[in-house]
Design goal:
Blueprint: H1 2-28, H2 32-48, H3 52-74, E1 79-82, E2 91-95
Length: 96
């Protein structure tokens, strides 16, 4: 059991480091594909997190990067709502 927990924590640290690198790349070159990768990575972290405050933090970051992706790819801003009760972030509604 502790081996699994250690592996999950290591995976989370790797994803967070990857996100740091991706954020630096994004600051140099605002590319929608990088914002989409960041969204995906933060959603992965949300799925692995049991603490609600950490999950909320990752959901907010995923939402931020999703907004960046949408703004660069479509030029529009959308409002998104997530279901935090689920293990996976779900889009409850999208409004333009």
């Amino acid at each position: 059991m502790s081996e699994i927990r250690t592996a999950i924590q290591q995976d989370q640290r790797l994803i967070l480091r990857a996100n740091e690198q991706l954020e630096h790349v994004y600051l140099k070159n605002a590319d929608p594909s990088i914002a989409l990768l960041l969204t995906r990575n933060y959603n992965l972290l949300t799925q692995q997190q049991n603490q609600i405050d950490q999950r909320l933090n990752f959901v907010q970051k995923a939402k931020f990067w999703w907004q960046c992706y949408l703004k660069l790819s479509t030029g529009k801003k959308m409002n998104l709502k997530f279901n935090l009760d689920s293990k996976q972030p779900l889009f409850k509604s999208i409004s333009i």
